[in-house]
Specification:
Layout: H1 3-28, H2 36-56, H3 61-81, H4 88-111, H5 120-123, H6 126-138, H7 159-169
Helix pairs in contact: 1-2, 1-4, 2-3, 3-4, 3-7, 4-6
């Protein structure tokens, strides 16, 4: 396996492990909810790594692009979840969605550089997609989807953008 792929896979696996720890902590202690912003930052690092990798490798572009697009969804939901106020039931739903989503991301990253062929349809269920769309609709328009503080960053990932990412993923 190419050294760049090994580095990407190793770093992404480490970040996914940290993302899971954050989710498990917040799941049992809602007062730690602000750490979901770190979850989003870790997802952003994986997404950035995937995009950088695309410029440096000769093969596997579709699969790395799929990881990048999928991670963008995780990032946006993570940032949005860090801003949920006074709604523990909704926070529990979003954490469950992120736990499932992060497990899917882990499967995708584990496949990098192997001879296994994995499609997004094999790891993303229709139930997950329905929950993702429902959760996205619940966020207020003022909820930001990144750490940026400019006026455009405050716009939520709207349903059209989610649909576009899902289409790019082949879902």
């Amino acid at each position: 396996m190419d050294e760049l792929l090994i580095d990407f896979k190793t770093e992404s696996s480490d970040l996914i492990h940290q993302m899971m720890e954050i989710l498990e902590t917040v799941e049992t202690d809602h007062s730690q909810q602000s750490s979901l912003e770190r979850y989003g930052q870790f997802a952003d690092r994986i997404m950035g790594g995937a995009k950088s990798l695309l410029m440096a490798i000769d093969t596997g572009h579709d699969f790395i692009t799929m990881i990048s697009n999928y991670t963008e969804l995780c990032k946006a939901v993570g940032y949005q979840a860090s801003q949920i106020e006074d709604n523990n039931e909704f926070l529990n739903i979003v954490i469950a969605l992120l736990l499932d989503g992060t497990e899917v991301l882990e499967q995708l990253v584990e496949t990098v550089g192997t001879s296994k062929s994995l499609t997004i349809q094999e790891v993303v269920t229709e139930t997950f997609l329905e929950r993702l769309k429902w959760v996205s609709k619940q966020f207020d328009q003022t909820v930001r989807t990144s750490v940026a503080v400019d006026k455009d960053a405050k716009k939520k990932l709207n349903q059209d953008q989610i649909n576009a990412l899902l289409k790019q993923l082949g879902l």
